[in-house]
Specification:
Order of helices and strands: EHEHEEHEHEHEHHHEEEEEEEHHE
CATH class of the largest domain: Alpha Beta
Distance between the termini: 42 Å
Bound molecules: nicotinamide-adenine-dinucleotide
Strand content: 15-25%
Radius of gyration: 20 Å
Length: 355
């Protein structure tokens, strides 16, 4: 059976979690690893099953034994590396956030247009792979909700553990795009893009954001120069409004709450394994009856399965010559929201996203 042979670029935290994607015996295998931090690369290599290690990823670009690259490097490196990989004629799966700006996504789209057989995916599609996401997408596409007018998507994560540290790039907007917005935001928007399909056409955004702040001396959040909370009202072309909140490290509990509301029915659910509303709960009034709620028996998200999905999906997309679960065109819309959130928070004005 043909396997897609990957070069892995970056041997940091996420590459270690992702190693299983290349050793689980399905369609993907790793053949080489690049990281200027050779110590980190040597540590990761055995669990990836590779012996070939280089410090400069460009030494791997023209290797005929490599079909695709997985970019597990800090966000500011995604654009140059993805462009190099496409210019070398290889497929690519980019860690989230896909790029730093919508303009960078356009550059990748232009590069892919020159080589349309190459597949480009982003690991923000990770949470597409759950029974809940697929069922929610089918409910929306099937019109069971009537006209969908409101999505409430609220995600709050807890305080960092005392003494937590993170690499410096995470605290630098020029290298990371933002803070919590660019950390968890790509998953949020990609999940909404997947579930909403063509209804996810963001047009106008009004947003506020704020930095992390120290909770207590023991729990000083690790990133103080980037956003620790964003709150956005997103109006889509269809009139659908999405209320999106992503907040971290507050004097309050975690919360993971998703509500879809339409003219015929609504549902509540969660998209990450730690959701407080496990399962998918469909609500509707029928005639004069009390509100009826049906809980659907769909599989819950599982961290291990979600972790490897984007690599599995890219390999199948290459083998079956189909699009991956997220495409640069959808990532362009997602990055339109990021750009608009940043601009709106700065100007305190609503921002319109261009086509
Ligand atoms: N940490 C997580 O839990 C997590 C989860 C999901 C996604 N991500 C995403 O994955 C990416 C990497 O995050 P991380 O936490 O693994 O970062 P990290 O800082 O732990 O690791 C990044 C690695 O990239 C290497 N690197 C830097 N420059 C390089 C170059 N020119 N060529 C090759 N390697 C180079 C570094 O030496 C380091 O080993 C980011 O986009 C992040 O948002 C991280």
């Amino acid at each position: 059976m043909k396997k897609i042979r990957y070069g892995v670029i970056g041997a940091g935290v996420i590459a270690n979690y992702m190693a299983r994607a290349f050793t689980e015996g399905l369609d993907s295998t790793a053949v080489a690893l690049a990281d200027p931090n050779l110590e980190a690369a040597r540590k990761l290599a055995p669990s990836l099953g590779v012996t070939r290690i280089v410090s400069d990823y460009r030494d791997l670009l023209s290797d005929p034994d490599i079909d695709a690259f997985y970019l597990a490097t800090p966000p500011f490196l995604h654009r140059p590396m993805a462009l190099d990989v496409l210019a070398a004629g290889k497929h690519v799966c980019v860690e989230k956030p896909f790029m730093l700006t919508q303009a960078e996504v356009r550059e990748v789209i232009a590069a892919q247009k020159a080589a349309p057989h190459l597949k480009v995916a982003c690991n923000s599609s990770r949470f597409h792979n759950t029974g809940i996401a697929r069922r929610a997408r089918a409910i929306v596409a099937g019109g069971e909700l009537g006209t969908l007018y409101r999505v409430h998507f609220e995600q709050v994560t807890g305080a960092p553990k005392p003494g937590s540290t993170l690499p410096a790039w995470r605290n630098d907007p020029a290298k990371n795009g933002g803070g919590i917005s660019f950390d968890w935001g790509p998953y949020d928007l990609d999940w909404m893009s997947f579930v909403l399909g063509d209804l996810f056409r963001p047009r106008t955004v009004f947003a506020t954001s704020g930095n992390y702040f120290p909770l207590t001396a023991e729990r000083v959040p690790p990133c103080l120069d980037v956003d620790g909370r964003i709150c956005a009202e997103i109006i889509c072309d269809s009139g659908l409004t999405i209320h999106w909140e992503r907040r971290a490290a507050e004097h309050g509990p975690s919360r993971h709450n998703i509500e879809f509301r339409g003219t015929k029915a609504g549902f509540d659910t969660c998209f990450v394994p730690m959701g407080e509303k496990p399962g998918l709960h469909v609500h509707a009034y029928a005639g004069a009856e009390e509100l009826k709620t049906v809980t659907l028996p769909d599989s819950l998200p599982d961290w291990n399965e979600t972790m490897v999905f984007s690599i599995r999906d890219l390999s199948r997309a290459i083998l079956d010559n189909r699009d991956p679960s997220n495409t640069p065109a959808q990532l362009l819309r997602i990055h339109g929201v990021f750009d608009a959130v940043i601009a709106s928070s700065r100007t305190r004005q609503a921002v319109t996203i261009a086509d």
